């Protein structure tokens, strides 16, 4: 006889039943049958894994509206096979037209990266230490957040109030990831298509956790651009 799931898992399963029943009632009996036929979202969301920033929930989106990938601190590492595969599939096969990099306030990854940068500044080092100093430098989490720590160095050198510095870092991180996405082979090939072809745009947003609102940083790109300059330094 199968054992009952723990209460926290049972709540998820019962919540799913209620969600499916409510959506079927609101969208029509054939909604899920239509979903099974395929997906054609126009948006790729590159977000943070943070549990407080679920893209479909905070945008009131329906299943099938948003193709998404999420990782710690919404990074677009150019050597990350997972990110590059998602981007390729979204643009080349799903038909995505808008790629949105979304950061958020109170980001643990940004806080860790900034703390490492502060340690470097305070000790006169030009290289930030691993974000988790109890792990070796080549630990997965340390390698993942190393670029963010380096990005935080000029901000840490400004000696701002921590809250202001972190908000600046979150925004600069989004700008940097938009730039990196814009330099991928997938996006450059899309921008090289003739004008009449489906176009792809890359955007940068920030979600304010304390207000529940998204902000457009107005850094959208839709053509090849070779010049990139950090906003704050």
UniProtKB/TrEMBL annotation:
The keyword NADP does not apply. SUPFAM superfamilies: beta-carbonic anhydrase, cab. One of its GO terms (molecular function) is zinc ion binding. It comes from the Eukaryota. Gene3D superfamilies: Carbonic anhydrase. GO terms for biological process: cellular response to carbon dioxide; cellular response to oxidative stress. It holds the Pfam family Pro_CA. Its EC number is 4.2.1.1. SMART domains: Pro_CA (SM00947). Binds 1 zinc ion per subunit. Keywords: Lyase, Metal-binding, Zinc. It catalyses: hydrogencarbonate + H(+) = CO2 + H2O. InterPro entries: Carbonic_anhydrase, Carbonic_anhydrase_sf. Zn(2+) binds at residues 48, 50, 104, 107. Its cofactor is Zn(2+). It is an enzyme of class 4 (lyase). Reversible hydration of carbon dioxide. Belongs to the beta-class carbonic anhydrase family. This is Carbonic anhydrase. It comes from Serpula lacrymans var. lacrymans (strain S7.3) (Dry rot fungus).
């Amino acid at each position: 006889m199968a054992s009952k799931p723990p209460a926290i898992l049972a709540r998820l399963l019962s919540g799913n039943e209620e969600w499916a029943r409510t959506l079927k009632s609101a969208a029509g009996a054939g909604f899920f049958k239509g979903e099974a036929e395929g997906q054609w979202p126009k948006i790729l969301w590159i977000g943070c894994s943070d549990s407080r920033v679920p893209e479909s929930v905070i945008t009131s989106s329906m299943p099938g509206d948003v193709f998404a990938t999420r990782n710690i601190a919404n990074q677009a590492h150019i050597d990350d096979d997972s990110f590059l595969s998602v981007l390729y599939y979204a643009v080349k096969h799903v038909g995505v037209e808008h790629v949105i990099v979304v950061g958020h306030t109170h980001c643990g990854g940004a806080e860790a990266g900034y703390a490492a940068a502060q340690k470097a500044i305070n000790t006169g080092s030009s290289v930030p230490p691993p974000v988790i100093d109890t792990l070796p430098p080549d630990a997965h989490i340390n390698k993942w957040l190393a670029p963010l720590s380096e990005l935080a160095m000029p901000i840490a050198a400004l000696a701002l109030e921590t809250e202001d510095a972190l908000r600046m870092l979150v925004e600069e991180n989004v700008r940097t990831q938009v730039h990196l996405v814009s330099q991928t082979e997938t996006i450059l090939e899309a921008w090289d298509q003739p004008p009449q072809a489906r176009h792809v745009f890359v955007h940068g947003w920030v979600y304010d956790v304390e207000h529940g609102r998204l902000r457009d940083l107005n850094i959208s790109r839709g053509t090849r651009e070779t010049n990139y300059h950090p906003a704050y330094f």
